[in-house]
Amino acid sequence: MAPKKFNYFSLFFVTLVALLIAQSTTIEARKFIGVNRFCTTASHKKLCTNMVNGATNMHDATQNAILATLGLAKRIQSMSHLIEPAIASLEPVSQVSIRSTCKDSFESTIDDLETSLQALKDNDQGTLLTRLSASASSDCDDALQEFSVDNPLSKVTGHLAKEVDNCLAVVQQI
């Protein structure tokens, strides 16, 4: 009688292990979807793959990446009020200067990305690369740093820099 219990236990144990292995494989398959072929040279491949959003040709990959970056740039612009508490202890003239610099910087980034989209439509590679590169600079970060103010938007602006870098990688695919 003891051998039957052992056989059932062994069968149960083997089945349980097989189910766990199958479940683990399924979870892993959901985690890794692969790198989009237009993101192979990107520094941030997973982010880039999300940005190109399943594009199957160079034009669509570039457009999707720029549109994703433009969306983030607009969100950052709408978050600019978060700078106010960080600069509250500065002299009023410095506050005005930083506000103006940040406002101009956010607008410039959006303009550079919108111009990049137009250059893509016009097949103007030079303007596309120039304006994408320009969108990476942030005079706002520099102004805050000049006054030794911690940028409350540093994480999101750092993410924007990664997205711009990815856009440039997609555009420059060989």
UniProtKB/TrEMBL annotation:
<dbReference type="InterPro" id="IPR006501">
    <property type="entry name" value="Pectinesterase_inhib_dom"/>
</dbReference>
<dbReference type="GO" id="GO:0004857">
    <property type="term" value="F:enzyme inhibitor activity"/>
</dbReference>
<feature type="signal peptide">
    <location>
        <begin position="1"/>
        <end position="29"/>
    </location>
</feature>
<feature type="domain" description="Pectinesterase inhibitor">
    <location>
        <begin position="28"/>
        <end position="170"/>
    </location>
</feature>
<dbReference type="Pfam" id="PF04043">
    <property type="entry name" value="PMEI"/>
</dbReference>
<protein>
    <recommendedName>
        <fullName>Pectinesterase inhibitor domain-containing protein</fullName>
    </recommendedName>
</protein>
<keyword id="KW-0732">Signal</keyword>
<dbReference type="InterPro" id="IPR035513">
    <property type="entry name" value="Invertase/methylesterase_inhib"/>
</dbReference>
